[in-house]
Amino acid sequence: MQSRRPVDAAPPRSPVPVSAEAEPAPIPWHRRHPRALLVAAAALALLLTALVAFQWGASTSDLPAARPSPSKSPERPPTIAEIHNALLPSVVSVYVQARDKEGKTENASGTGVVANADGTILTALHVVRGATLIEVVFADGTRAKAAVATSDPSRDIAVLMPAELPELLVPAVLGSGGAIGDTVIAIGDQLGLTGSTTTGVVSGLNRSIKTEDTGELAGLIQFDAAVNPGSSGGPLVNDRGQTIGIVVALANPTDAGTFIGVGFAVPIAAAVAGGSRPPLL
Q1: Which string of b and e fits 234-257 if b means at least 16 CB within 10 Å?
Q2: Interatomic CA distance for residues 218 and 208, integer angstroms
Q3: pLDDT by residue for the chain (281 residues), tens digit each?
């Protein structure tokens, strides 16, 4: 789902039909004032991790096990805003230059997520396939050239290795699973709007779709959080702030290439497994 040709259930560089072409957007405020953002985000990330680890349960260690106190209620889960702020330092913008069939240079963009402390970035393969130049921009504004380290066309997943890392790197917390009806959050640069955050629910599991660029993709998470060209490669996050999938496509029976309520993501376990294989490009 990159901005060159929306998401695919059809296109080469974005989730299902993608016709809109968006130039990379100007670097937003949060990238012009990185240090304050990252310090706050790191604190939020630590808080979110603690909330996840304790499953938001209030401690009852001071009470007899057989007589739990009815007056104590679980702590509230993190809000969407808190999840957004905690995840934002892990989300990167991916800008690509490539040549079309006529040999002309064209620009495209997508999203990625830092998945490891060594700086490796997961994204959608169709975002970077055939690229002559890949540049990633971290949340603090750090720009770095990147190369495809490994890829898995059967899952439309690529792993990027940046040539330079930001001073403060915050990998995403990876989760697993997900059930129909679970709340999910999608974060990405849809239509060139960096860090866009939308919410919805898991609409289906183990879905299969066919795309023009990558062929058949199976085992996908279906969701209804809005995604558009440029969202490809971004994280799909649960309501605990854990990344459970990588956005790869949207379905649209028309040529509009915009979101109509059906998006797809590769489960994070499959994305990580695909990214650990030997290079396929």
Answers
A1: bbbbbbbbbbbbbbbbbbbeeeeb
A2: 4
A3: 554 444 444 344 544 443 333 444 455 545 555 555 555 555 555 555 544 444 433 333 343 444 444 444 567 889 999 999 999 999 999 999 998 878 788 999 999 999 999 999 999 999 999 999 999 999 999 999 999 999 999 999 999 999 999 999 999 999 987 899 999 999 999 999 999 999 999 999 999 998 777 778 999 999 999 999 999 999 999 999 999 999 999 998 787 778 899 999 999 999 998 666 444 43
Residue among 3, 14, 93, 232 flagged as catalytic: 232
Supply the pTM of this predicted model.
Answer: 0.74
Does residue 151 lie in a domain region?
yes
Whether residue 30 lies inside any domain: the answer is yes
- Residue 14 annotated to the active site: no
When divided into structural domains, the chain yields a total of: 1
The verdict on residue 278 lying in a domain is yes
61 is catalytic: no
Q: Annotated catalytic residue: which of 156, 189, 213, 224? A: 156
Q: Which amino acid is at 253?
A: P
